[in-house]
Automatic annotation (TrEMBL):
(2E)-4-hydroxy-3-methylbut-2-enyl diphosphate binds at H61, H94, H144, T184, S242, S243, N244, S286. This is 4-hydroxy-3-methylbut-2-enyl diphosphate reductase. One of its GO terms (molecular function) is metal ion binding. GO terms for biological process: dimethylallyl diphosphate biosynthetic process; isopentenyl diphosphate biosynthetic process, methylerythritol 4-phosphate pathway; terpenoid biosynthetic process. The active site is at E146. It comes from Polystyrenella longa. [4Fe-4S] cluster binds at C32, C116, C214. Binds 1 [4Fe-4S] cluster per subunit.
Length: 332
């Protein structure tokens, strides 16, 4: 009797169908208002002025987007000496320092400023605090384009910190005028840890009335935090140099599930899904929806995946195209 029961169980386990894959599409995901504005601005510039446009750094940190514009004749440069005098130059969504703006004028470049308004807000805050003789602590990642631009506004007044440990090394006293600002694309958790350390060490420190971390960064992180417990694996569409995309990937790791940051369908590996029936997919603020849908279609065909989209917050923020675009149009 027991033997028959055992044989029946074994036979059933061999014929039991695999658990179908479920894709959970996190929403909001992908383009934020600042990225959408910058990309639309570059599209419009190409339409108005043709190819031969230069962009200082990547328009946004996404390889798909950069490759698309490169094919249309746009050149991305890291040194303004690469830009012929008199050319059209577009500043990326991450913003630039006054030094770069000054150099662009020296080279008689026709500049279009596609800086995200939320980044511009941080620049203006830096200038305000510097004028008021504050020592400014900028919480951010060294070498990031946004951080370089912000620090360039008042280099003699700004000190960069990345971690709570960095706060302990600061030379300031509790008697000095201190203010803190943050990079807009930080993880809310990592920023909170550093800000808490700053406030604990320097009770007198001040900050802007409204936090600097981008609404879209926060919303995308919140969505993943809420949905990741329902998943076996997290896929984040975005490029490796995208700070906000990296932060999304870290959330999966924090929750103890495999998390992968990928540019698109070509990066997918079948072995990732061997023991994963529930896949959470999101996209960083600079990743286009087309790369998300390519991955979804790949998994649908390969694993017969079913798709469930979960919307946790509606985003209605929009930024107008920069005035400098229209000004240039009227002068050429």
């Amino acid at each position: 009797m027991n033997t028959k029961s055992h044989l029946f169980t074994c036979s059933a386990s061999k014929t039991r169908p695999e658990i179908p894959m479920e894709i959970i599409l996190a929403n909001p995901r992908g383009f934020c208002a600042g990225v959408n504005m910058a990309i639309t601005c570059l599209e419009e510039a190409v339409r108005l002025f043709g190819s031969g446009i230069y962009v200082y750094h990547e328009i946004v940190h996404n390889q798909y987007v950069v490759n698309r514009f490169t094919k249309e004749g746009v050149s991305f440069v890291n040194d303004l000496k690469e830009v012929p005098e008199g050319s059209i130059l577009l500043f990326s969504a991450h913003g630039v320092s006054p030094e770069i703006r000054s150099l662009a004028k020296e080279r008689r470049l026709k500049s279009i400023d596609a800086t995200c308004p939320l980044v511009t807000k941080v620049h203006l805050e830096a200038l305000k605090y510097a004028r008021e003789n504050y020592n400014i602590i900028l919480v951010g990642h060294e070498g990031h384009d946004e951080v370089i631009g912000t620090m360039g506004e008042a280099p003699e007044s700004i000190t960069l910190v990345e971690t709570a440990e960095d706060v302990e090394k600061l030379p300031f006293t509790t008697e000095e005028r201190l203010a803190y600002l943050t990079q807009t694309t930080l993880s809310v958790q990592e920023a909170t840890e550093v800000i808490t350390a700053l406030k604990n060490r320097y009770p007198q420190i001040v900050s802007p009335p409204k936090e600097d971390i981008c609404y879209a960064t926060t919303n995308r992180q919140d969505a993943v935090h809420q949905l990741v417990t329902q998943a076996d694996i997290l896929l984040v569409l975005g490029s490796q140099n995208s700070s906000n995309s990296q932060r999304l990937k870290e959330i999966g790791s924090t929750h103890g599930i495999p998390a992968y940051l990928i540019d698109g369908e070509a990066d997918l590996k079948d072995e990732w899904f061997k023991d994963s029936s529930r896949v959470l997919i999101t996209a960083g603020a600079s990743a286009p929806e087309v790369v998300v849908q390519d991955c979804v279609e790949h998994l649908r065909k390969k694993f017969n995946a079913q798709i469930k989209e979960v919307t946790l917050q509606e985003e209605k923020v929009q930024f107008p195209l920069p005035k400098s675009l229209r000004v240039l149009q009227n002068t050429i």
